[in-house]
Amino acid sequence: MAPSQSSSNSTANNANDILSRINFWEPVVQTGINAIAIPSLIAFLLIVEAPRLYPSKPRWKVLFSRSNQLLVGMWLFGAGYNLAMVFYNGGDEVALTAATVLMAGLETCYVWFSWLRATVILGFHAPPRIYQFFKNLTYFLPFTGIFPVILALLPFHKDPFTAVLIYMFSMGIGGVVTCCVDIFFLYSYTCHARQYATEGRAVVLTNSSHNESGDVELRIISTYGFSASLFALGVLGCYLGAVVCRLLQPGEMEGSVLTTYYLFWILKDVMEFGSASALAAMKVSLILAKSPAVPGEEKGSLSGPKSGVVRHSNARVTIVSEVNTNHSLLNNDLNASKQV
User: Fold this and answer.
1) What is the Cα–Cα distance from 319 to 244, expressed in whole angstroms?
2) Which positions ≥6 away from 184 have C-beta within 8 Å?
3) What is the pLDDT of residues 172-184, one digit of tens each?
4) Helices 255-289, 94-117: crossing angle, 10 deg rounding
5) Could you tell me the pTM of the whole model?
6) CA angle 312, 317, 323 (to 5 degrees)
7) Which of 111, 109, 273, 118 is nearest to 190 (CA)?
């Protein structure tokens, strides 16, 4: 073996040793962060959101509102996924199936929370059929967690390499669905930002004494939502890269392929954390952007105007709910999510 090739192999092996340790400890670190972040988030919802925006309601009802359930659920599923990966890295093969199911739960909570918060923006920029198509697509996400459980019962699951491929395939299905919805999110957020840049104001709520506040809230949703969707697409990109590496060397990976695999897998987990953090930051910013409510006059949800959505321009105000009367699904979503 030539000296240069030997040196190159030694460098690659050293890099893989370092990345292997990072890959092992990364879910441990994230589990520790989750152990701090989840109680902190719950405490913020109970101590800040409940008395600030809903002073007349029991705090437990505020905590268990639809959006809070999805947000906290997303972080809990994320914590469970990281914990399962800790056990899998320790040699527990069953933890791989658990990680797949937990990832499906995380993706479901992420998409449903994002949809709930951005209903106004999504419905404003999409025709009714497109809006309904993507909404129906989100209902498929919970079922992606069933596939690995069924496949785990089949005989060929005993082969370690086959088990990993099943895990990757199952996660890939949910990832593709999430990717499609994220592209829809990004399109809507981009349209909203472009409209705000050209008109000075975009979509706000009607029949509200806080129209300016509503406009600020929608900008918060589009800004943080855009970041969360970018992170989510990055997760899928890194995941696909890891799958390709796995297929290139079906046996034991080594050399540059193993290095690339570790990099993709570590970045995937980091971007998952970034997406969840962006949505948590969105929630906190929305709460702080609203003025405190007077008891008996609680704030309604941004997703639930009584008179639809309006487009503000310098010249006039156009009420979309009157122009686009066929968008019944959006109106139903708005009415169903007044208290989130």
Assistant:
1) 49
2) 122, 126, 130, 134
3) 777 888 899 999 9
4) 40
5) 0.80
6) 110
7) 118
